[in-house]
Design a protein that fits this description.
The structure holds two protein chains of two kinds.
Chain A (H helix, E strand, L loop, with lengths): L3 E2 L4 E5 L4 E7 L6 E7 L6 E7 L4 E4 L2 E6 L4 E6 L8 E8 L10 E2 L3 E6 L1
Parallel strand pairs in A: 2-11
Antiparallel strand pairs in A: 1-3, 3-8, 4-5, 4-9, 6-7, 7-8, 9-10, 9-11
Chain B lengths: L4 E3 L2 E4 L5 E6 L6 E7 L5 E8 L2 E5 L7 E4 L6 E5 L8 E8 L7 E2 L3 E5 L1
Parallel strand pairs in B: 2-11
Antiparallel strand pairs in B: 1-3, 3-8, 4-5, 4-9, 5-6, 7-8, 9-10, 9-11
Classes of the chains: A mainly beta, B mainly beta.
Chain lengths: 115, 113
């Protein structure tokens, strides 16, 4: 049961250009969405999040867009830098589960920035 | 910057042996989690822990698994009798409260031989 889907397993982008990573979800109870970056043999590192009451959140080079009607979110990285090369996971949680903010992760997208 | 720390970074154990994975969550966080990632697969939820009890556990978290917060700082995951399929990266995470981000540790790579 894939409640969070990342349909692109990999993405290559030229340095300096925009990287767009996509994520779809099926569970309408999800109301908090996060993007994590992960290097091999390390834990996921939080990047940016968005609550369902917003449709956009920006933090420096990173912007997350949420389209609730389409159950879709995307992460934009601009400009892309070589250090951005990593696996990016989309994750979601439901605040209705107060006391259990478990995250449901997508399968990840491996982003490679080409110098 | 506060961080979640996990020990050991790598554990090799024989099938059938017990292992304990240790975590020190961020000190003022209230919610604690274990996740795992089998090589090449997605990060999967195992168990959540709040107010000194399990809030939810996944199907993976069967009777062979247990968690404990023995002293107010450590958070442990015990696997009583390891199986080959328990080989994975195990991540501990902690969360301050509702609507905040979870912070993950660096993980423990468990190899069952």
């Amino acid at each position: 049961d894939q409640q969070v889907k990342q349909n692109s397993p990999s993405l290559s982008v030229q340095e300096g250009r925009i990287s767009i990573l996509n994520c779809d979800y099926t569970n309408s109870m999800f109301d908090y969405f996060l993007w994590y970056k992960k290097y091999p043999a390390e834990g996921p590192t939080f990047l940016i999040s968005i609550s369902s009451i917003k449709d956009k959140n920006e933090d420096g080079r990173f912007t997350v867009f949420l389209n609730k009607s389409a159950k879709h979110l995307s992460l934009h990285i601009v400009p892309s830098q070589p250090g951005d090369s990593a696996v990016y996971f989309c994750a979601a949680s439901a605040s209705v589960n107060f006391g259990n903010e478990k995250l449901t992760f997508g399968t990840g997208t491996r982003l490679t920035i080409i110098p | 910057e506060p961080e979640v720390t996990q020990t050991p970074s790598h554990q090799v154990t024989q099938m059938g042996q017990e292992v304990i994975l240790r975590c020190v969550p961020i000190s003022n966080h209230l919610y604690f989690y274990w996740y795992r990632q089998i090589l090449g697969q997605k990060v999967e939820f195992l168990v959540s822990f709040y107010n000194n009890e399990i809030s939810e556990k996944s199907e993976i978290f069967d009777d062979q698994f247990s968690v404990e917060r023995p002293d107010g700082s450590n958070f442990t995951l015990k696997i009583r009798s390891t199986k080959l399929e328990d080989s994975a990266m195990y991540f501990c995470a902690s969360l301050l409260g509702t609507g905040t981000e979870a912070f993950f540790g660096q993980g423990t790579r468990l190899t069952v031989v």
